[in-house]
Amino acid sequence: MAHTHNARPAPVGGSLINAATLVCGILIAILAAILLVRFVFGIGAVTNVNDGYSWGIWVVVDVMIGSALACGGFSVALLVYIFNKGEYHPLIRPALLASLFGYTLAGSGIFFDLGRWWNFWHIFWPSYVNASSVMFEVAACVTAYIVVMWIEFAPVFLEKFGLHDVKRKLTKVLFFFIALGMVLPMMHQASLGTMLVVMGGQVNPLWQTPMVPLIYLLTAIIIGYGVVLFESCVAASAYRRKIEVHLLNPMSRIMLGVLAIYLLVRLGDLLARGALGEAFKPTLQAAAFWLENLCFVAPFFLIGNAEARRDPSRLFLAGIAIMLGGILLRLNGFLIGYGHHTGSGWTYFPSFTEVMVTTGMFSIEVLGYIIITRRFPVLPREHAQVAS
Amino acid sequence: MDSRRDFLKGVLASSAVVTAAAVAPPACARETHGRPAEALGLLYDATLCIGCKACVAACKEANNNPPEFSTVDHLWDTPLDTSGYTFNLIKMYRNGTMETKDAEVNGYAFMKTSCMHCADPSCVSACPVSAMTKDPVTGIVAYDPGACVGCRYCVVACPFGIPKFQYDSPTGKIGKCELCRHRYKDGHYSACAEVCPTGATLYGKSSDLLAEAKRRLALKPGSQTRYPRGKIGGPDQSYEGPVGNYLQHVYGETEYGGTQVLKLSAVTFAKVGMPNLPPNSSAATSETIQHSLYGGLIMPIAVLGALSFIAKKNVHDEADSTDTGSGEK
After folding, report:
1. What is d(CA B127, CA A236) in angstroms, rounded to the nearest whole number?
2. Long-range contacts for A236-245 (Cβ within 8 Å, ≥24 apart)?
3. In terms of CA atoms, which chain B residue is nearest residue A117?
4. Contact B16/A at CB under 8 A
5. Radius of gyration of chain A from Cα atoms?
6. According to a count of CB atoms within 10 Å of the terminal CB, is the N or C end of chain B lower?
7. For A369-384, what is the mean pLDDT?
8. Given A119, A195, A197, which is nearest B148 (Cβ)?
9. A89 CA to chain B: closest CA distance, Å?
C-alpha cells in the first residue's frame, strides 16, 4: 500500500517560550480576568447579549463555529478509514489534534454562557433530559465525541510514555472508536443546523429550511478539509517544513467534489422553497448571503485545475475561503439572519470583553497545538528539522 | 485496484446513509399538538382595554417582581418591554394624529404582551432539561428554575419573544407568565384578569374563551352587549357596553396549532406586535426531523455498524503496513 512510505510522526522539538506562546499567554490571562467578572456579576456585566439576541458570539462563534472549524479530524478520518485512502494518514494526527482542542474548548466554552451553569449535569441526567430537544442531542453527542477523540488520540501519549502494551490493546478496538468518531460529529454537526428549525419565522428563509441538517453536515465536512489546507500551510511555514502538496492536491479535489454537491443542495433547496427572492432584496441579510456563497464558490476559481492545486498559496487561500464561507453560514443563520419578527427593535453587536473571551479561547487552542506538536509525536517526521 | 474498489464502496455506503437521512419520508412525523380539553387561558379584547395598566401592577405584585425604571427620576415601575422581571405589559400602537381609539390610521390601540401558553410551545420543545414544561391537563407552560441550565434556547426559540432572562444576576433565572398557577390553591386566578376593570383580560377555560370571542365577532359593531369580567363561569360581574369594530380573527385560534391565550383586536395583529404564524408549529417540524434521524437510535446505530465494519478492515491494513514501515526506518 502506498502509505508504507509515509514518514512516522515525531515531536517537532524546540523551545516552548517564544513570541507566539507569550502572546497566547497574555490573551489567556485577559480571558481569565473577564470570566471572573462574568461569574461574579452575571453574563450581562461583560456581554451585550439581550432578550432579542440571547445567543451572542460565545455560543455562535465559540461553540458553533469553533466546533465546525474542528471538523478536520473527522473529515480526514473519513478519507483514511472509510474511503481507504491510506496515503492521507500523515494528515490524521495533526487534524485530530486540532479537532480535539477545538471541541474540548467548544464544549467547555458553553459553560461561560450557561446562566445556571451549576445545573449543567441535568443535560445528562435521565430524569431531566428532554430527548426531543435538539440542544440535548447536540450536548450529548459533543460530550461523547470529546471523550472518543481523547481515546483516538491516546496512542500519541502512550507512544510518548512508552506504554506499548496498552497501545497494542487499544489498537485492537480502535476501529470502533474511529467509527464512533465519525458518527457522532455527523450527528451533532447536522443537529447544530437543526437548532434553527424550532425558531421558525424568526430566521430569514435564506437559512430556515427543513434541509438545514444536511446543509450543516455537508459544510462541516468541507470545512474540515478547508481547515486541513489552512493548518498544513500554517504549520509548514511556522515550523519551516515542506508543505505536503502531494497530499493536499488530491485532497482538495475531493473537497471540491463535496463542495459541488453542497452548492447543488443549497441552490436546489432555495429554489424548491421559493426563498431565493430574499437574496435580491436590498438588505444586510441578502449581502451576507452573497458573501457567504461567494466564499463557497471561490475555491473553484482558486484551485479548479491540477496546476493551481500544486500552488501552496492557492491551496491556503482556498482553505481560508471555505472557512469563511462556513463561518458566515453559521453567523448568518444564528445572528445576521435572526431577529424577532415581533419587531421590537433589538440589536446586538459583541462587546470588547465578549470578543476578548473568544480571542482567549482561540489562544488556548493555538498554545495547546504548539506545546503538543513540539513535545509529542504528531506531525510527520522530516529529515532536516529546523525548529526555532 | 483494491483501494479504488474500497473507495467506491465507501462513497456508495456513505452517500446511501446521507441520502437516507436526508430524504427518508418522515416515518415519525410529529403532528402539531392541539390545546388540551381542559386548557386554561386568557381572552384579551383590545377594544375593551383602556390602558390603565392595573394588570401590569397586579402581575408584578403576584409574582413578587421588582420595579423597573425607564425614567430619570426612578419614581415608579415603568418597564418598556417584558423582561426577566416583568411578565406582563400593555403596549400602545400609535398612528398619525392618534385621534380615534382602535383605528389603524390616525388612531391608537393597546395590546397585551405576555405568554400565549401555546398548544405546542417552541420553548418546551427547545429546552434540553425539561425546565419548561406544559401541564397535560391545564396546558399551562411552566418554568422550573431548579432544573434550568440557563442556556436560553427558549428565549431564542419563542416566536412571541416571551421567556426572558435576568442577565444582571450571577444566578439569573428565566422570567415568564405562568398564568398565576401558584395562586390557584388560595382560590385565586390570573392576577391580570382579576384586576382588569373592563374585562379586557378575561380568565377561563380556553374553550369557553374561544366561544366568547366568537360570540363577540358575530355581533354588529356599535350594538350593545354584556361583557363578563374576571373569570368566565365565576361570579357575575358583567356590564353592558358597545361592540367593537373587530377584525374577524381570533388570534391564537389556529396559530402554531393554537394558543391558550386568545386575542381580539380592531388593528391588524401584525401591527400590534403579534406575528403571522402558520397553523403548524415549528416544534413539530423540529421534532419530526429529530425523530426521523435519531428515533430509537436506529439510524445512528446502523451507520455506526457500517462504519465500524469498513474502519475495522482499513485499520488492520494500516496496522500491518505501519509495523513493516517502522522496520524500514
Report:
1. 44
2. A236/A312, A238/A20, A239/A12, A239/A373, A239/A379, A239/A385, A239/A386, A239/A387, A240/A386, A240/A388, A241/A379, A241/A382, A241/A385, A242/A382, A243/A312, A243/A315, A244/A90, A244/A91, A244/A380, A245/A310, A245/A312, A245/A315
3. B149
4. no
5. 21
6. N
7. 77
8. A119
9. 9
Q: Which residues touch B196 (CB under 8 Å, ≥6 apart)?
A: B54, B55, B202, B229, B230
Q: Inter-chain contact B128–A8, Cβ cutoff 8 Å? A: no
Percentage of chain B lying above the pLDDT 90 cut: 75
The β-bridge relationship of strands B107-113 and B100-101 is parallel
Looking at the domain A49-340, which fold is it?
A: Formate dehydrogenase/DMSO reductase fold (1.20.1630)
Q: What does the block give as the cell for A374? A: 513540539
Task: For residues B33 and B136, give the distance between their C-alpha atoms in angstroms, rounded to a whole number.
Answer: 11
Q: Cell numbers 444566578 correspond to what residue?
A: B171
Global pTM reads: 0.89
Grid coordinates representing B323 are 509495523
Taking alpha carbons only, the member of B115, B133, B117 closest to residue B125 is B133
Cell numbers for B310, please give them.
469498513
Residue whose C-alpha is closest to residue A52's, from A199, A208, A205: A199
Considering only the beta carbons, identify the residue of A42, A54, A78 that sits closest to B170. Answer: A42
Residue of chain A nearest B18, judged by CA positions: A214
Interchain contact, A86 vs B317, CB within 8 Å: yes
Cα–Cα dist A9/A12, whole Å: 9
Q: Which residues are B132's β-sheet partners?
A: B143
* pLDDT tens per residue across span B205-257: 999 999 999 999 999 999 999 999 999 988 999 999 999 999 999 999 999 99
Q: Mind listing the pLDDT tens digit for each residue in A141-160?
A: 999 999 998 888 888 888 87
What's the grid cell of residue A348? Answer: 446586538
Average pLDDT, chain B: 89
Residue B86 confidence (pLDDT) above 50:
yes
Could you tell me which chain A residue has the CA closest to the CA of B167?
A44
Max CA pair span of chain B: 100
B252: left (phi over 0), alpha (psi -120 to 50) or beta: left
Question: Are the Cβ atoms of B127 and A130 closer than 8 angstroms?
Answer: yes
CB contact under 8 Å between B300 and A187, yes or no, is: yes
Give the closest residue to B45 by CA, choosing from B130, B102, B123, B84.
Answer: B102
Q: Closest CB to A194: pick one of B290, B321, B324.
A: B290
Q: Where are the domains of chain A?
A: 14-48+350-378, 49-340
Give the Cα-Cα-Cα angle A129, B206, B197 (nearest 5 degrees): 115
Chain A hits for B166, Cβ within 8 Å: 42, 115
Mean pLDDT, residues A88-94: 81
Nearest residue in chain B measured CA to CA from A168: B319
